[in-house]
Amino acid sequence: MNQIPLVDLKAAHAEVADYVRAGFERVLAATAFIGGEEVREFEREYAGFAGVAHCVGVANGTDALELALRASGVEVGDEVVLPANTFIATAGAVARIGARPVLVDCLPDTQLMDHQAALDATGPATRAVVPVHLYGQCAATAELAARLPGHVRLVEDAAQSQGATRDGRSPGSGGIAATSFYPGKNLGAYGDAGAVLTDDEELAGLVRSLANHGGTAKYRHDVAGFNSRLDGLQAVVLRAKLARLAAGNAARRAAAARYDALLADLAAAGRVVLPTTDAGNVHVWHLYVVRVTGAGPGRDEVAGKLNAEGIGAGVHYPVPVHLTPAFSHLGHRRGDFPHAEQAADRILSLPLYPQITADQQQQVVNTLADALR
Length: 373
What we know:
Helices cover 40% and strands 13% of the residues. It is an alpha/beta fold. It has 2 domains: 9-242, Aspartate Aminotransferase, domain 2 (3-Layer(aba) Sandwich); 245-372, Aspartate Aminotransferase, domain 1 (Alpha-Beta Complex). α6 (141-147) links the parallel β4 and β5 (153-157). The radius of gyration is 21 Å and the shape is globular.
């Protein structure tokens, strides 16, 4: 049986290898290792793709979120509301500022943040709410933005939603968003990279200053800043892949629809629950996540059987933030966020990438069906 990875980075590289090689030669010839023309062009191109006025490239997605929060006024001792069902970096960016993560549950069908719970959790000490656009679709940011108190900023975690929209709105438009270009993302670098997206020129300038030791000119330091900059070599890779991102997202949507059809019998039999797309969302399917119902073998057993047969299934994410040792000081216990906990116990990510074939998906589904027996 052929091996099928969760994400095929080799296939993605093969499509851009010649462009990347030529771009690396340009950067080496110009010795433009930090910043430079490639970075400026990528920022301009990605801003256009994302439908925002400004893109500020930074070192990674966690930095991007921290810088977006800091630029939005989050300080030591403030509270920031975020979902318990997210990658640890969302809470980590808050903690690095010295602010306090305030966790809320996710919705049971999409696993996106429960926006009503987020609104209920806001108080006088809340400075920001961070919806996470999970698996490739956007959370209900418009509903949140319309009802948040004036002292609370909306800061979007868009690390998994490059190219996604909700009701025609893209992350960062009219506000501020952070994204990650970790290699496995829909738009992935050859190492760590990230960006902050916004229409607000003042916010963009503050992020750029904070990321560059507190200033935008050499030896000028207006604020105490950080060292978090996108390098020229990564910008070359991102520009090459950005030119193919729209087509890649369309291929992901086609593959997701194919999974829906192939898995229909297993869903009808109550063995798996298929992913749900909220109304108004244009999904970019960073991940295709099913839920194992428990009618047969448990999720971990199913995942182990798939992996043993060469199918690169994964779990995003196996432990909610409130149950990790890193955030045990928040005082939560099992049962506090039941939807996030149930998701952590049952979700299973199946292989999905633009180059996946119908035959490979059929192999995945056949192997999953065997594992569920």
